[in-house]
């Protein structure tokens, strides 16, 4: 299987999966995302950021176009799109509104876990059919108070009685939790299980309560509404994904997270550079024959943007190359590459948006300017904090001590 790279403006890339040319589907999905971005996401992006509110207009538009279920297999009613297709969609939405793109990306991470690890379960097969019909929005509850940000450790546990379960979790963050239809939560397999013996539980909102414990008044990514909650839920044990969370994490959640996140960050950085380029062109028109002072910085920013694009492309290619090889996905080399994808792209996002701000000067610094870059810079800084880069680098430092290949 060959993989796509994130699409640049006006660029097309062919992808073949199982002998089928994926260009037509990707073009269709990107066209829908572009339309939604222009008509719903971009016009409301500043208000979503300013008011720290959920991007309801864009998410409703994505629902209407059945974009929430694109990863569901065709035999269950979805489009069966690839991870590279999701990358292209997240990039496109990131050009218009980071909050919309992030909500979409995080939903698709949960959808990917269900699709790839719930396919053998009649319960999850029906759930995926319902996802297509109802355009279900799924949130995630992986972090937990008391574990120091380590999502591979849980304090809470699933308590079962026969075929019934109960779960209580104190989560410092559940992004768009109050707006989600369901939540995929991690917990210890049982009260006597080890902290890293975890499962993923599909928590149904009609059988759950959310008690808000923290707010979300942040520097950037304000529209994700990532408040803290005490989550209480009950249900049937068939709502537990049959695959251990350790496998779900290494095979799907971690790589898909880093791919869709870095793709939308690339969209944010690209829009910032596009605004800087428009500013420089305007300055050049004012003084024909003279190169504006910021033109050199623009060339540097474009160079860094190309580096970021290549970095994201390489991550997508690597995952799709190994996607059907569980042994490779759990290998040390792959974990190092996915970790560095996140670290490198998040650092570049900050660098590129900051360069764009410098190019535009006061026009980029002002919030009421068409060249405003403030939102882009603030959102980009969040990239380094979503699973803190220091934690990832520390993990890679340990892995590199035992990994033999460069």
Please give the structural blueprint.
Elements: E1 16-17, E2 20-21, H1 23-51, H2 56-64, H3 83-94, H4 98-117, H5 122-134, E3 138-141, E4 159-161, E5 164-174, E6 182-188, E7 198-204, E8 208-214, E9 227-236, H6 245-286, H7 295-322, H8 326-329, H9 332-360, H10 362-365, H11 374-383, H12 389-402
Parallel strand pairs: 3-6
Antiparallel strand pairs: 1-2, 4-5, 5-9, 6-7, 8-9
Helix pairs in contact: 1-2, 1-3, 3-4, 3-6, 4-6, 6-7, 6-9, 6-11, 7-9, 9-11, 9-12
Keywords:
406 residues, four-stranded antiparallel sheet, disordered N terminus, 53% helix, 9 strands, alpha+beta, 12 helices
Fold and architecture overview:
Helix 1 (about 25-50) runs antiparallel to helix 2, helix 4 (about 100-115) packs antiparallel against helix 6 and helix 7 (about 295-320) runs antiparallel to helix 9 (about 330-360). About 55% of the residues lie in helices and about 15% in strands. The chain has helices spanning about 25-50, 55-65, 85-95, 100-115, 120-135, 245-285, 295-320, 325-330, 330-360, 360-365, 375-385, 390-400; strands spanning about 15, 20, 140, 160, 165-175, 180-190, 200-205, 210-215, 225-235. Strands 4-5-9-8 form a 4-stranded antiparallel sheet, with no helix packed on it. Strands 3-6-7 form a 3-stranded mixed sheet, with helices on one face. The protein is built from 12 helices and 9 strands. The model is unreliable at about 1-20 (pLDDT under 50). The chain is of the alpha+beta class. The chain starts with 15 loop residues before the first strand and ends with a helix.
